[in-house]
Input
Amino acid sequence: MAQRYVRVKTAQGQTYYGLLQLTRSIQVLDAPPWLQGQPTDLELEPGSYQLLAPCAPSKIVAVGKNYIDHAAEMGTPVPQEPLLFLKPPTTVTSANQEIKFPPQSQRLDYEGELALVIGDRCVDCTPAEAQAKIWGYTIANDVTARDLQRKDGQWTRAKGFDTFCPLGPWIVRELSPGARLQTFLNDAAEPVQSTSIDRMVFPPEFLVSYISQVMTLLPGDVILTGTPKGVGPMQIGDRVRVEIEGIGHLENTVVTRSASVTM
Output
């Protein structure tokens, strides 16, 4: 089994990066692993920590319509260049945490995706250079308020609510190019999304190179590589599980988000 790099919080409120062992204990690192974090003598026992999202990105750069079949189901052509948008870091939540359905929306969709974690500062990289900047891989759900996306004509609000980027549960260093991505709702045996990640229009190294020619990518930043066909709505109480072969699964439950009062 591939090494699984995690980020955790202890009962005392301390946050650590570490390696998840088969026993579910955590071997703590002295820094994020992409910053050459090394093992320490500290080990956290099972039950003594909470899994967080595996990184804390300065930004999340997402790619729209990066699978031909998804572009078709959205009724649009495949973009000639990667279609980029940003999700704020405050959208990030971890495995087994709640996705909060905001009162402003009537339609919340799941979008299972492969996420790339950047390991080194990346500016104006070629695709070959960009491949070396991808430190690892994790799973994401690019939650989208579909009605607000259509209403606004741009994607910031629809993609930007708190909890709209479940990420995790851990990072692996290597992934098969043909790994299968699948999304499941509740206890259904059949996935609502299923594809091989090598069916992307623009592959990971091209995406990182392209983005690096627009903005500087920093260690720990996250790239969402797009979702395949099969996107659909989630209801209050639904459990959505995104699986990627060679990584694991990311599961979250949808709950009501209370309206907030601003002064």
Residues 81 and 202 are 8 Å apart (CA to CA). The first helix runs from residue 68 to 73. The two ends are 52 Å apart (CA to CA). Helices lie at 68-73, 127-133, 146-152, 156-160, 204-212.
